[in-house]
Structures are given as C-alpha cells and as structure tokens.
Write a structure and sequence with these properties.
Structural class: alpha+beta
Oligomer: single chain
Order of helices and strands: HHEEHEEEEE
Largest sheet: 7 strands, mixed
CATH topology: Nuclear Transport Factor 2, Chain: A
Radius of gyration: 16 Å
Helix content: 25-40%
Number of helices: 3
Number of domains: 1
Shape: globular
Length: 144
C-alpha cells in the first residue's frame, strides 16, 4: 500500500514540476501564448489582480489570454519563481501553487511585487496529449 501511495505522489510531483516549469517560462518570457496553454478549454478562469491591473472576474480561456496579453505588453517581468518554501497545497480536486512575481510598468517604470496563487486542477480532454494535464482554474495576486 505504501508503495502505491509513493508512486502516486511521485507521479503527481512530476506533473506539478512540469507545470511549474511551463508557468515560470510564460512569466519570465512575458509570453501569454505559453500561459494560454495552461488554461482550461471549457472551464472559466477566475483572475483577481490588484492595482495597477484592477481585474477581478471569471473569464473564458480566450478572454483570459487577452487580459494576460495586455498585461504582458504593459509590464516587463523582473523576476518570477515558484515559492519552494511553501510546497503545493494538495486536495482531492487540485492544488494551490504559490509564486513571487516582480514586474515593472513599461510606461512609467514603476515596480510592483506580487505574491501569486494559482489554483490548478487536472483536466483530461479526449484528444491530443498536449491538452491533458494541470490547468489553471484561478489566478489570485496580493500586492507586497
């Protein structure tokens, strides 16, 4: 029984590590297309971002992509990393992954620091393999 639990946890941590790598790449490269691949196809995404972005609502995958595209056009990521001190919080339906994001406004140079929380869940779609895996159900930010 312990071997089965260990195998499941190992598999889950591998999936989370792959997801984290994709998430970091999207933010570090200011690439909304990479982030869009991490959004679910048929489930709305809750995005809650404080000033200066002022966004808080449920959005379709395409709407979330447009928001992130505008956000990445107006800001430049200075740093983004998954918080290793706070391991993912797992439950039966998904996990919460915490990150730190530092960004600068391209227009006025102001810098912002955020703690980001990503609620992710496993999405299984009948189709190509690249549509399976963890997807973002919620992005929530707190200004630091």
């Amino acid at each position: 029984m312990n071997a089965v639990i260990g195998l499941v946890l190992s598999f889950l941590l591998t999936i989370i590590n792959q997801f984290n790598s994709s998430l970091e790449g999207a933010f570090l490269q200011n690439d909304p297309a990479r982030l869009e691949r991490l959004l679910p196809l048929n489930t709305p995404v809750l995005i809650t971002l404080p000033e200066p972005f002022q966004v808080s609502d449920f959005f379709s995958r395409q709407q979330a992509f447009q928001i992130m595209r505008k956000l990445f056009q107006h800001t430049s990521t200075l740093e983004f990393f998954i918080d290793q001190e706070n391991q993912p919080v797992l439950d039966r339906k998904g996990a919460i992954i915490q990150a730190r994001w530092s960004t600068a406004d391209r227009r006025d140079g102001r810098k912002y620091l955020f703690r980001l929380y990503f609620y992710v869940f496993p999405e299984k779609i009948d189709g190509p393999k690249d549509l399976s895996g963890l997807k973002i159900r919620e992005i929530r930010a707190e200004k630091r």
